[in-house]
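Closing statement on the MTE sub-project.
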Amino acid sequence: MNIIRRRGWEAPEHEVTPEHYFLSRRAIIAGGVSALMIGGYAGAQRLSDVEKLPDPTTDLYPAKVNSTYPVDRPLTDEKTVTSYNNFYEFGGDKYISQRAQALKIRPWTVKIDGMVEKPFEIGVDDLIRKMPLEERIYRLRCVEAWSMTIPWTGFPLAKLLELAKPLSSAKYVQMETFKDSAMAPGQRQTWYPWPYTEGLTIAEASNDLAFLVTGVYGKPAPRQNGAPLRLAVPWKYGFKSVKSIVRFHFTDKRPKSYWESLQASEYGFWANVNPKVDHPRWSQATEEVIGAGGKRVPTLLFNGYGEWVADLYKGLDNERLYA
Ligand SMILES: Nc1nc2c(c(=O)[nH]1)N[C@H]1C(S)=C(S)[C@@H](COP(=O)(O)O)O[C@H]1N2
Ligand SMILES: [Mo]
């Protein structure tokens, strides 16, 4: 039944899906690879025992709810949250959740380096156990003009910054996804700038809304949602919320992200949600609520989180803040 309900929003999505469109176009340019992208990775995919490993942090769930940030929409149901995903490491379509089970999420080491007092590495379970886990419901607005409402578990990125101790000269934090094409067939598309990276200013990263996600729906996050550690910055387009992070690199130079390297005119550094600033190829005025039978709602400035983040952008009028 779920399948049939999904069909309603599947069609419009395929018409707008920009990241997917772009990926396909690149694949076609490269020649012959498009069949692989469209047909998925059935041949390369091997579900192994890895997916059956018990998660070593299960005892931390469910975490206490932090309801500072109001939610005025119904939650997207869990099945949709965990089966309709963007994770280009596993393919350019939305249905990578099975393929993503090949991601080996333990052991998992997080590296903190660059302009910090002292670079270090830490196992993700040690890191998670040092952090104050809580549950927050955030809306997620993809640049492709669809949205979801998701209960994440995690901790403020600001808490990681406290641990990392960036130097006062550091201005940005760049976050990097794992790179291992043996697990992630998408990374065999060598003309893409793997690993996927994203960046924030230190001021943005210190804002309480910037959240490092470890769980979804009161449980450790499934691989397709970016286990074991992913970002959620709900006032920005979804591509900023980098998944499966292995490195936090502090720098004084503005990092160029994965999507920005691919197509800077469409996916910039700031990428704050704004209904009045259209994407070059479609309107951002409204969004399709995934799982709601094709319903569209108006998109809000800063995705409705302006009260908490608008001040971050004072005096930056010359920057391309919204694309
Ligand atoms: N490493 C990595 N992170 C990523 C992506 C990706 O392809 N690779 N896609 C981004 C995009 S475009 C979106 S909309 C969100 C989707 O998150 P979800 O699948 O949990 O809904 O993840 C973001 N993080
Ligand atoms: Mo996205």
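The domain at 55-310 is CATH 3.90.420.10 (Sulfite Oxidase; Chain A, domain 2). With this model delivered, the sub-project is considered complete and its resources will be redirected to Aim 3.
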